[in-house]
């Protein structure tokens, strides 16, 4: 891989179209289809796909309980004041270009990551340095989620030859059990087994990935046998494909919540009674069973599988349409001639943004539109590109958005909360919401090691979110896939970090 031109060549395993994905696969290639677009070579944009495909690795991995475990870092230690972390790198690790893993490559990768928007740039790092096989990270203040941030996909470690002299990434050279053989953003990539991998050698010889945003297309690929591993199925396709003996349809709960994001700076949504009415007008149980086809109604933001973040003491969110109507009436809203509520000549009408990459979202949006109409709230749906939600967040134009948020972007959800609920809000979190004590509670979670103080901070955070509803939880997720029955030892990752290529194998 001498240049990006060579990197962008679609090889025999490349996937420029569904037709190439459907071609007879060589060397028992595992053909994967999922909705995630490849946004470019920059880890800040496509690090999640490269991590899922086991091309790149991070210093830290996580076990089944979301606890940090060694990866490229064999061990680490932290000073008593929490300001200096030292990581000892594994010996005998080589990148895909044959160069050795060393402190220089790690420092370059992490400093590049922290120069861009993400989690590392929100971490109070004063300096990253290293020599030989030891990397030192110095902090301005203690930051307990550091290991989680270093496990996040944007903290991936690349070989020094990945950059040109101007600091631009021209090649993606990782250290994972698979190396790139084809790369064509935004649609496809291909990998083959890296024979000099430092860890357990995978049995799979090669794999390919196709980004397919339409759920119907992904389901057809699974149904026809033109893909071996189809990720993220809509409910109807899941039930239909489950009847095929050539497919296995695993599903697991994941720490992901489907929610409404509200702009509390919008005059229509600034008042708590209106937000409460929106929440009470939504029949979560009926929606989950009709659209998702499993009992996933969200009674609070964090699902039960998130352990200490699920606050069992909270009053659960419930379907109470009569009470919703009463809230709106008491706030001065009266039905107009067409049934839409008005006050002082203004209609209670909002635009809801969503996107079709997750097939359930447009359906959920239509149901929400119908249910809110029953209490006099008019909802206009704009099903567009997912990028419109952060774009309108920053422009201030957004009123409501419907999407799902993965709280396991880092093993400790504190990292995600720092992105979404900091003082200035976040693309996929709060907008114009500044509750008393919330930032201090987040600060406690990033600095304190005292279990009682951390528990109290989580209670404050979860209670504020439940009571003030800057986002309105709708449903908790299960993740599903359609997998070729001849493909064995395939396990869905509850943290959605890996497709599991390194562990799967073909039936003999």
Outline the fold blueprint.
Elements: H1 4-7, H2 18-22, E1 30-34, H3 43-52, E2 60-62, E3 68-70, E4 73-78, E5 84-89, H4 103-114, E6 125-131, E7 134-139, H5 146-151, E8 178-184, E9 188-193, E10 206-211, H6 215-224, E11 229-231, H7 235-241, E12 247-248, E13 251-262, H8 272-280, H9 284-292, H10 321-330, E14 334-335, E15 341-343, E16 346-347, E17 349-354, H11 360-373, E18 378-383, H12 388-395, E19 400-406, H13 414-420, H14 438-447, H15 451-468, E20 471-484, E21 487-488, E22 505-506
Parallel strand pairs: 1-10, 1-11, 17-18, 17-19
Antiparallel strand pairs: 2-3, 4-5, 5-7, 6-7, 8-9, 9-10, 11-20, 12-20, 13-19, 13-20, 14-15, 15-16, 21-22
Helix pairs in contact: 8-10, 14-15
Description:
This protein starts with a helix and ends with a strand. The chain has 2 domains: 209 residues, Periplasmic binding protein-like II (D-Maltodextrin-Binding Protein, domain 2), CATH 3.40.190.10; 226 residues, Dipeptide-binding Protein, Domain 3 (Dipeptide-binding Protein, domain 3, Roll). The radius of gyration is 24 Å and the shape is globular. By secondary structure, the protein is α+β, with helices and mostly antiparallel strands. Strands 1, 8, 9, 10, 11, 12, 13, 17, 18, 19 and 20 form an 11-stranded mixed beta sheet that branches. It contains 15 helices and 22 strands.
């Amino acid at each position: 891989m001498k240049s990006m031109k060579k990197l962008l060549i679609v090889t025999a395993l490349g996937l420029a179209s569904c037709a190439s994905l459907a071609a007879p696969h060589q060397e028992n290639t595992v053909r994967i289809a999922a909705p995630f677009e490849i946004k470019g070579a920059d880890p800040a944009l496509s690090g999640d796909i490269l991590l899922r495909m086991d091309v790149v690795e991070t210093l830290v991995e996580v076990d089944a309980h979301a606890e940090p475990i060694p990866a490229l870092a064999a061990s680490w230690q932290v000073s008593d004041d929490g300001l200096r972390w030292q990581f000892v790198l594994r010996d005998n690790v080589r990148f895909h270009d044959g160069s050795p893993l060393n402190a220089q490559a790690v420092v370059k990768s992490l400093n590049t990551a922290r120069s861009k928007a993400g989690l590392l740039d929100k971490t109070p790092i004063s300096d990253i340095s290293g020599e030989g096989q030891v990397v030192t990270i110095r902090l301005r203040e203690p930051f307990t989620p550091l290991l989680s941030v270093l496990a996040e996909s944007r903290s991936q470690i690349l070989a020094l030859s990945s950059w040109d002299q101007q600091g631009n990434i021209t090649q993606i050279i990782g250290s994972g059990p698979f190396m790139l053989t084809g790369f064509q953003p935004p649609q496809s990539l291909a990998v083959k087994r890296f024979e000099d991998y430092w860890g357990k050698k995978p049995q799979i010889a090669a794999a390919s990935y196709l980004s397919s945003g339409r759920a119907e297309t992904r389901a057809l690929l699974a149904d026809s046998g033109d893909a071996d591993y189809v990720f993220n199925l809509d409910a109807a396709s899941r039930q239909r494909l489950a009847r095929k003996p050539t497919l296995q349809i695993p599903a697991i709960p994941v720490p992901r919540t489907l929610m409404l994001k509200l702009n509390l700076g919008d005059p229509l949504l600034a008042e708590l009674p209106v937000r409460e009415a929106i929440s009470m007008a939504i029949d979560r149980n009926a929606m989950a069973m009709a659209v998702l086809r499993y009992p996933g109604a969200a009674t609070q933001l964090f699902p039960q599988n998130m352990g200490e973040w699920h606050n069992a003491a909270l009053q659960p969110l419930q379907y109470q349409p009569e009470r919703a109507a009463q809230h709106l009436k008491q706030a001065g809203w009266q039905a107009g001639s067409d049934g839409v509520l008005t006050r002082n000549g203004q209609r209670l009408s909002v635009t809801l943004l969503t996107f079709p990459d997750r097939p359930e979202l447009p359906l959920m949006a239509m149901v929400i539109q119908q249910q809110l109409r029953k209490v006099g709230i008019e909802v206009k749906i704009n099903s567009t590109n997912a990028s419109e939600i952060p774009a309108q967040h920053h422009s201030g134009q957004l009123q409501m958005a419907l999407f799902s948020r993965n709280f396991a972007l880092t093993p400790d959800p504190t990292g995600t909360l720092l992105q979404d609920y900091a003082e200035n809000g976040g693309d996929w979190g709060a907008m114009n919401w500044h509750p008393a004590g919330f930032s201090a509670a987040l600060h406690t979670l990033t600095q304190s090691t005292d279990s009682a103080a951390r528990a109290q901070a989580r209670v404050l955070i979860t209670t504020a979110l439940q009571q003030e509803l800057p986002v309105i939880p709708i449903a908790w997720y299960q993740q599903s896939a359609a997998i070729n029955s001849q493909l064995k030892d395939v396990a869905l990752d509850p943290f959605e970090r890996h497709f599991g290529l390194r562990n799967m194998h073909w039936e003999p």
